[in-house]
Amino acid sequence: MKWFGRKSAEKTRSEENKAETHSGLKNVTESVADDICRRVEEADLPAHILDAVRDECERLLKLDNSSPEFAISYSYLEFILSLPWNETTKDDLDIQRAKDVLDARHYGLNSVKERILEFLAVKNLRSRIRPNLIIADDEIIARENLSIIFEHEGFVVRTVGNGLEAVAAMEEEPADIVITDLKMDGMDGLELLEVLRSRWPDTGVIMLTGYATVKTAVEAMKNGADQYLGKPVNLTRLREHVQDLLGRNQRIQGLQGPVLCFSGPPGTGKTSIGRGIAESLGREFICMSLAGLRDESELRGHRRTYVGAMAGRILQNIQKAGVRNPVIMLDEMDKIIQNFQGDAASVLLEILDPQQNSAFVDNYLGLPFDLSGALFIATANIVERIPEPLRDRMEMIEFSSYTPGEKLKIAQNYMLPNQLLKHGFSVNELDIDPDAVNTIIADYTREAGLRGLDKQIAALCRKLARRRLSGQEEANPIKLVAADISGIMGPPPHFSATVAGTLKTGVATGLVWSENGGEIIFVEAVRMHGNKNLLLTGSLGEVLRESAQTALSFLRANAGRFGLSEDFFETSDIHIHIPAGAVTKEGPSAGVTITVALLSQLTGRKVREDMAFSGEITLHGDVLPVGGVREKVMAAVRAGISTIVLPEMCAQAVGQLEDEVLKGVEIKLVSRLEDALEVALN
């Protein structure tokens, strides 16, 4: 019996402890719920958000602490409170400071910097615009009192005595907001309202009257008045209505131009220029890589009904930045994956559209969040891969390849000092000849940008550090000339293609553009006995194959003009080959080159070895324009070419080239294939 009684007592005490624990957890849960609901009330949330959040708080207070919905609801409220609904950064619109920041961060890129400074200059001018207000009232004291109040708040105020004078003032300069009395001589408020709505629909109208009735209020609102207030006027409410109308007025909204899209080869400074824009404006900077993005929920978030739901990357980054107007860089936009699983690019249509992003709805948040204050900048290597609707919302700013002279300056002034400090040297411990730097640029890198050059300079610093510690480099400073580079860094991993030293038949030099900048290619053509076969080799894409077929058809159709037999193809096979067969080649710029090589082979006339070609052709012999002119010209100069044949419609692009790019090269512009063939063949 004693044993039984002891067990019963222990069981009773255990149940009491469990009850106390459960009661304590319940009290803690209630205090947590009360605390977050109190924080919601104290937070300065927008009115339309506060109503929805209050409903969620009521739901949270009713949930049991052991319910999974409690944790989900609590996390949701915490996320809402963490978002910067009202926090913004004031822009620093000092154009000279912005120019100094961009120049300090980047050498060259003058056209890009100029476009960015134009963007900031327009934003600066827009920020100086003072809202324009017309006060129409037949009572002198009433309109003068309102005039004093709004002039003190920064408005440009004009006062008139009736509706006719208000219309005349609007014709002189349209106002953003008109505050008008209802009863006036000449033209009353309702008649004025009708004129304003027909001629100036964007202007906000606030109706005031000392004879406020439900009927007149309904009539005024029905005719298009934005607000209706009775006299004596509640100034606090009037100010609120004016500010609300200012926010909706299309004429005075902030700068909402197209989204800037930086396009160009890798390593040309697109991301770092974006960071420089944020620094010059004084804004927070967010860089989001979109490479490999395939699921739209990564941007828009998951619905809260899903297990493990979370907000999209847009709001997550806004939350981390702590302000709702950061600079957001959408990096690698051309590498978004589009397939049957989802289309993430469609979400970007809403995010980048200034008419929609003021009420962006994340699936997790479920409430509109204003993204109109954020400055979006996109980057892409190849803009053609971006869906057309997205491209339509963006302004393309092209980042061209760096010239050898620009690379030399950047290496000497930026990269070398930075890498020396990283590798334990002082800036004065290395004396490197400019020719040695040019050797690294020409023989150890093959790129349009600077990343490879930075890696090679880092490799040079590592090898010098190893030699210094082993006693091979005791001199201080270490002196390097061009001849020393190969001994330190080994044989060059790349070689630059150069034109042949002797004239050849059936070989022409072409210029092409790739993601790594401009390059030269050699097009070879041979004729052999056969049965009307056109052989194309060299890993050619569909466009190049069509160019070759077009070139052959043009020559067959114009055989007599070039001294060819009309049936030269009847008993022949023609083989066109572009060397480096393992490298895939494609692009609409080799038509002229293929035609020159083919005609050279058929006539036995040799092609000038110092000449290169770029241009597409038609069946009737017209030469069509091509892109990448700057990169192609630089590739020709590197290869020792002195004369370049380009389409005549590329004249504007040629005119924009710097003197450094055109140094030592002659440009010939042609509009017809006959002109190109005449200058090409000896």
Q: In words, what does this structure look like?
A:
By secondary structure, this protein is an alpha/beta fold. Strands 19-20-18-17-21-24-25 form a 7-stranded mixed beta sheet. β22 and β23 form a beta hairpin. α4 (95-105) packs antiparallel against α11 (270-281). The relative contact order is 0.06. Residues 1-11, 18-28 and 250-255 have low confidence and may be disordered.
Tag the structure with descriptive keywords.
25 strands, alpha/beta, five-stranded parallel sheet, single chain, about 675 residues, 25 helices, disordered N terminus
**What's the total helix number?**
25
Note the quaternary state here: single chain
Strand content is 15-25%
Tell me the number of strands: 25
Cα distance spanning the termini? 124 Å
Short précis:
The chain contains 25 helices and 25 strands.
List the helices and strands and how they pair.
Blueprint (H helix, E strand, L loop, with lengths): L1 H41 L4 H16 L5 H15 L12 H11 L4 H18 L4 E5 L3 H13 L3 E5 L2 H10 L4 E5 L7 H11 L4 E6 L4 H9 L4 E4 L4 H14 L10 E5 L6 H12 L3 E5 L7 H4 L12 H9 L5 E5 L6 E2 L2 E2 L1 H8 L7 E2 L6 E2 L5 E6 L7 H5 L1 E5 L5 H19 L7 E3 L1 H10 L7 H19 L8 E3 L1 H8 L17 E8 L2 E13 L3 E5 L4 H16 L14 E6 L13 H13 L7 E3 L2 E2 L5 E2 L4 H10 L4 E5 L3 H5 L3 H4 L3 E5 L2 H8 L2
Parallel strand pairs: 1-2, 1-3, 3-4, 4-5, 6-13, 6-14, 7-8, 8-13, 15-16, 17-21, 19-20, 21-24, 24-25
Antiparallel strand pairs: 9-10, 11-12, 17-18, 18-20, 22-23
Helix pairs in contact: 1-2, 1-3, 2-3, 4-5, 4-11, 7-8, 16-17, 16-18, 17-19, 20-21, 21-25
